[in-house]
Each structure stands twice: as C-alpha cells, then as structure tokens.
C-alpha cells in the first residue's frame, strides 16, 4: 500500500520566493543545469574522439533532480552524489575543466587519474567520492550524520541512491540505523526506471520506493524529478527538518534515464515511446519555459547564459587537454595516509 | 606499572584515548549497556554517555560504513565486530570504501575495527576464525595482532592515532588467560615493528597472536636455543626483524593459527626465500591450521589449531636437518 506523500508540482513565482529563491537564484539554477548537461555532452564527444579511456556515464534526464537537491543544501552540509548526479558537483562549484581532466585520466582531475568518470569529489566542497558498489556511500553518509549528531552540529548529510541499488542491504542497514537514531540525513532515490537493463517491476514490489520510509520510521516523498523547483522545495523541507532534529526523509525523484547505462549501451530494451514521452518533459526545456512564463527571462538573458556556459566549457576543455598525464612513478604514493593528510576541512 | 589482563589492557587503551580526545567514540553491537560481548567496553557508557558508546542495530555494514563516514567527518571511531568472523558482512566497506578512499580520492579514513578472533574454546566455524591474511592482502588496510597486554594497549593507542583503517585482531583466547605488566601512562607501540619474544641461536619461529605462547611452550621442550619473533602486526610487517633472525639462526618456522593456503605465512616464507636464501641451512617450514573451516568439537578443534606438539615436532626436524 502506498504510504509516501506524492509532492505537488512546482507552483507560482510567489510560492518559489517563499521557499527562499530570488530571481537571480532562479537564473543561476538554469545556468547550472545547462552546465551540467553541457559537461556530459562534451564528455560524450571526448569519448567518441577516443580521449576518454574505459567507459563513460551520463545523467541525462536527471539534471533537475541533482541540481534541485544540491541547491537546497547548506554550504556546510555534505553529500555522496553518484554517477547520474553531475549537477551536484556543478552546483557545489567543481570547475568543469577538472571534470574533463578526470574523464581523460589526467593529473588535474580530482583523483589525479587514479579513478575514472564520476568517481570523484571535492572534499573541500563537502562531497565524498563514490565507489562502483551502489549504494555503498549511503551508509557512509549516515556515518557523516552520526558525527554531526555526536558533535551536536547543525549540519545535514545527503545520501544518494538509484532505484536499482535500493535492493541492496547497504540501503536497508543505513536507513534503518538513521531512523532508529533520528540522524540528520536525507535520502535521495533517483528513480530513473532502469537498473542497467532491468525495469522497475523486476526491482521492487512496492508502489513507490519512498513507501519504504514508513518501515524505517520516517517520511517518504515522491516527487517529479524533472521539475527542478518541486525537487528543490521537497529537498529543502527535508534538509531543514533533519537539521532541526526531525530525523531523515526519503525522497524518490522520478525520472527516466535518457541514455544507456553507459556509453556502450544503446538501451534497446527501453520502449521507444517511453523515451518520447519523457523527452517531452525534458527538465531543462521544462524549466526554461517556466522561467520565460514566470520570471520573464528575456532573450538577452537566455543568450547570455547560453554563451556563458559555452565559453566556460570551451575554456574548460582547452585547459583540461593541457593537463599532464599522471606520472607512473607516483603510483605507489598515498596508499596509506600520513598524519599530515588529516589536515583537511573535516578534520580540523 | 600494574598487572593487567590482555582484555583490561585493550580496554584501558580505548578508555584513555576517549578521555583525552573527544573525537574518539565506540560503536558496535551490545557495546553500551552490556559492555560488549566480552566486556571490553564495560562501564564506558556510564562514563562517556550513549552518544559516544553507541549500541548499534545488528548491522555490520552500517557499523563499518558509519565509522567510515564519521571518520571522514573528523571523528576517530573505534568500531567493534562482536566476533571477527562477522567482518565478512562488512567486507565491502572495508575493502571497497575505507581501504581505497585515501589513494583514489585523497580522503583519509582513520578508523579502528576491533576483531575478537581466534579459536580454542569450541566456538565452531563462525566464532573462531583468524581472517588477518584476507585483509593484509588489501592495499590501504593495516592489520594489528597483539600477543601481550603491554602491546595490546600500546598498539590500540597507535591504531587510534593512525590516519588509516586499522584492523585490530584481539585474540579471544588471550583475553583473560594472559596477564602482564602494563605501564599506567600513555605510550604508543609502533605499528610495523616486531618484538623478540625470546632470543635464541638455533632456530627462529616467526609468529603472532596466541601462537606466540604455543611457540614458547614448544621451545621449552626441545634441546636447542629457539628465537621467537612476535610480528605484532602483519600489515605492515617487520621484514627486517624476520630477515635478521633468519640470518642469525639459519633455520626458520613460520607459525600461525590461520589456515595454511594463502595464510600470511606464505608471504613471509616467500620473502625469506627471495632475500635470505643463502643464509638458510634448511627449508622454511610452515606450521598452520589445515585448509578446513574451524571445527566445533574439542577433539577436532585440537586437531585443527596448531598445538605445542606440532611445533615441537617441527623444531626437532629442523634441528636435526
């Protein structure tokens, strides 16, 4: 039986202003969403040019969800975004040239060529790098929240998972413990309907994954993941609730993965009509229309933003291509941390 | 100095660090109200409160992952697996996240994972294992296996201070059976430095954990001068101390309670073969448990865990070689 609350779509400008976003914020969200998609589109080109080793993953269709949640986070909050959540890195301020350097296995990527694609994070921006074992970082985020609770800090951790990974024990153990201790953590489930080639009806038997929240003693919310302002609103409510001691929330953001699992996968198993239906709800186009209708975004403004993103990405590509390859002589360094390594923002 | 059991020494090590550093906290199953299945954290919750001595749900993944997240946020968790055997449920978080995070993402993970390990009391296949070699194989993890109360305290403090994930294998059979003088003050026993348990000239026994005492008893039953090297930590391990001892005696037994194939003794034997071949007067001997799960019935368990007689036999063979 469905128990999660199904969130309303985003409302008028007045509603949005009451949630703390002014016109400049709203345009910034658009800029961030465009940058997010642009980074991945450019990445695709780099891959086809043979400049990206290994595989390549994108989160096309998930821009509203990732940017909406990240925009709702406070600057001291932390999170564990995954491979469909490029928008989180962009919102937090990771420079695109470093992401391209990461894609290409260069020295200036956040992992200096030691790990690939979106397996990266800038710790100074409150992010923790993901691993391939999903959702292993979900209970790690719960551990961050535990630290905040022990130290009685007003900080919140955000834990991401896909709908596929919600089937794993990590999700259960992490959410159960967080519920028991009412920890300041918000769980985001990016439900993009396909775990590689596996559809939702072979992944779970509940109506909504957010219905599981009730079993852990907290609230579940289902939100349209293509509606950036609705995602922002629900994330904001959940994050502030967690911050004030109200415990976790599980937010299920419903989207469609608009490309294959990775670049090698043509997603033949996804019905064509499904892609067509969700293409009509493209999160960026949808938000652009909202901005035109609600805050009178002008042609000039749109052009300025588009031009800004284009230049940002062109410059970033150029800079990343100049980044040196990592030095194999340094391979052995840093397997073990030294006491000096603890000189990080979190350990101060 | 006071005489303490091995268990009290571990407890003292953790308690002392919790008193001097508020980042240090304990989490595990039944560690709070009950004081831990073996009572290592008895009285901790009264002293430090329920948010620094955290009774966890039966969730090994959440324990190790939770410790990892808290450590990344600047805490110094000391997590407990109720028995070392249950670390299999948290393998992913040690090996996939904690071990690799520093190397690939620059994020240190300073956690201590306490692992009550070892057999000798009919614990059966799931309460008796010595899984140190599995983790010594994983770059990024450290494995500590103290044998004496003094080392148990000093290595616990070293483990808490260490900026890496440290697996602390505490041998259950030593908990209350082994007593020794333990300094009252705070001291650090360096990780990676072996200890000469007893000096000798004729044969070396390289070992760690409870097998140190098996080797000691065996040495008393042979007519030869036996040197016993207690490795103290298997990752990193004190290669130099081992090679020095081999060069001195020219005959060596590598002894451990873990099973033979893939046990850490193989690494030590291989290193001796590579680096001290010319110094050997006899083949390197390994004495270890056979390649089976740990049996339950006392008669079977005795046949499984290396006994004093097994070591005596090995020593005699080498002496007469």
3D architecture notes:
The complex is a heterodimer of chains A (348) and B (321). The termini of chain A are far apart. Chain A is an alpha/beta fold and 348 residues long. In chain A, helix 7 links the parallel strand 3 (157-162) and strand 4. The model of chain A has no long low-confidence stretch (mean pLDDT 96). Chain A has a single domain (5-323), classed as Rossmann fold, CATH 3.40.50.970. Chain A is built from eleven helices and eight strands. Chain A has a six-stranded parallel sheet, with helices on both faces. Chain A has a two-stranded antiparallel sheet with strand order 5-6. Helix content of chain A is 41%, strand content 10%. With 321 residues, chain B is of the alpha/beta class. Chain B has two domains: 2-182, Thiamin diphosphate (ThDP)-binding fold, Pyr/PP domains (Rossmann fold), CATH 3.40.50; 195-319, Rossmann fold (3-Layer(aba) Sandwich). Chain B is 36% helix and 21% strand. In chain B, the strands form three sheets. A seven-stranded mixed sheet of chain B has the order 3-2-4-5-7-6-12, sandwiched between helices. Chain B has a five-stranded mixed sheet with strand order 9-11-10-13-14, sandwiched between helices. In chain B, helix 3 (60-72) runs parallel beside helix 4. Chain B is globular.
């Amino acid at each position: 039986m469905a128990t999660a609350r199904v969130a309303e779509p985003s409302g008028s400008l007045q509603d949005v202003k009451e949630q703390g976003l002014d016109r400049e914020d709203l345009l910034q969200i658009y800029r961030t969403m465009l940058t997010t998609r642009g980074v991945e589109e450019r990445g695709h080109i780099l891959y086809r040019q043979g400049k990206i080793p290994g595989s390549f993953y994108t989160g096309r269709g998930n821009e509203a969800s990732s940017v909406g949640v990240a925009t709702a986070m406070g600057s001291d909050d932390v999170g564990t975004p995954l491979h469909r959540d490029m928008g989180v890195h962009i919102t937090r301020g990771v420079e695109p040239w470093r992401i391209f350097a990461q894609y290409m296995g260069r020295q200036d990527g956040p992992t200096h060529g030691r790990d690939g694609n979106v397996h990266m994070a800038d710790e100074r921006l409150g992010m923790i790098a993901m691993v391939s074992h999903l959702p292993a970082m979900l209970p790690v985020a719960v551990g961050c929240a535990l630290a905040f609770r022990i130290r009685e800090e007003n900080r919140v951790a955000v834990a991401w998972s896909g709908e596929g990974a919600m089937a794993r024990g990590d999700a259960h153990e992490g959410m159960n413990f967080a519920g028991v201790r009412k920890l300041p953590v918000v769980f985001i489930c990016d439900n993009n309907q396909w775990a590689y080639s596996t559809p939702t009806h072979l992944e779970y038997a509940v109506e909504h994954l957010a219905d599981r929240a009730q079993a852990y003693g907290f609230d579940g919310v289902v939100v349209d993941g293509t509606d950036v302002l609705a995602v922002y609103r629900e994330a904001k409510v959940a994050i502030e609730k967690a911050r004030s001691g109200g415990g976790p929330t599980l937010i299920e953001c419903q989207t469609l993965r608009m490309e294959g699992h990775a670049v090698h996968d043509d997603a033949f198993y996804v019905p064509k009509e499904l892609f067509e239906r969700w293409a009509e709800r493209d999160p960026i186009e949808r938000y652009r229309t909202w901005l035109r209708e609600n805050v009178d975004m002008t042609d000039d403004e749109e052009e300025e933003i588009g031009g800004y993103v284009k230049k940002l990405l062109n410059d970033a590509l150029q800079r990343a291509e100049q980044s040196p390859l990592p030095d194999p002589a340094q391979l052995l360094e840093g397997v073990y941390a030294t006491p000096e390594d603890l000189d990080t923002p979190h350990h101060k | 100095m006071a005489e303490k059991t091995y268990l009290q020494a571990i407890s003292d090590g953790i308690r002392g660090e919790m008193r001097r550093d508020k980042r240090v906290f304990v989490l595990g199953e039944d560690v709070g109200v009950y004081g831990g299945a073996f009572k290592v954290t008895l009285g901790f919750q009264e002293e430090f409160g329920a948010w620094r001595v955290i009774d966890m749900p039966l969730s090994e993944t959440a324990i190790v992952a939770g410790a990892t997240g808290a450590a990344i946020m600047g805490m110094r968790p000391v997590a407990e697996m109720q028995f070392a055997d249950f670390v299999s449920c948290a393998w992913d978080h040690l090996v996939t996240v904690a071990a690799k995070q520093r190397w690939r993402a620059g994020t240190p993970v300073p956690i201590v994972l306490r692992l009550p390990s070892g057999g000798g009391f009919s614990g059966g296949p799931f309460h008796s294992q010595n899984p140190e070699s599995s983790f010594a194989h994983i770059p990024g993890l450290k494995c500590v296996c103290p044998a004496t109360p003094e080392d148990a305290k000093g290595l616990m403090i070293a483990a808490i201070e260490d900026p890496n994930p440290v697996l602390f294998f505490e041998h259950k059979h030593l908990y209350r059976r082994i007593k020794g003088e333990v300094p009252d003050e705070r001291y650090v026993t360096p990780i990676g430095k072996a200890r000469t348990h007893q000096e000798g000239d004729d044969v070396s026994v390289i070992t760690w954990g409870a097998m140190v005492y098996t080797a000691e008893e065996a040495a008393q039953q042979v007519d030869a001068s036996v040197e016993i090297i207690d490795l103290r930590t298997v990752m990193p391990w004190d290669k130099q101390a081992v090679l020095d001892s081999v060069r001195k005696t020219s005959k060596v037994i590598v002894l451990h309670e873990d099973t033979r194939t893939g046990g850490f003794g193989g690494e030590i034997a291989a290193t001796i073969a590579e680096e001290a071949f010319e110094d050997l007067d006899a083949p390197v001997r390994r004495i270890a448990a056979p390649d089976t799960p740990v049996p339950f019935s006392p008669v079977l368990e005795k046949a499984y865990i290396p006994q004093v007689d097994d070591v005596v036999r090995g020593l005699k063979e080498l002496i007469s070689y």
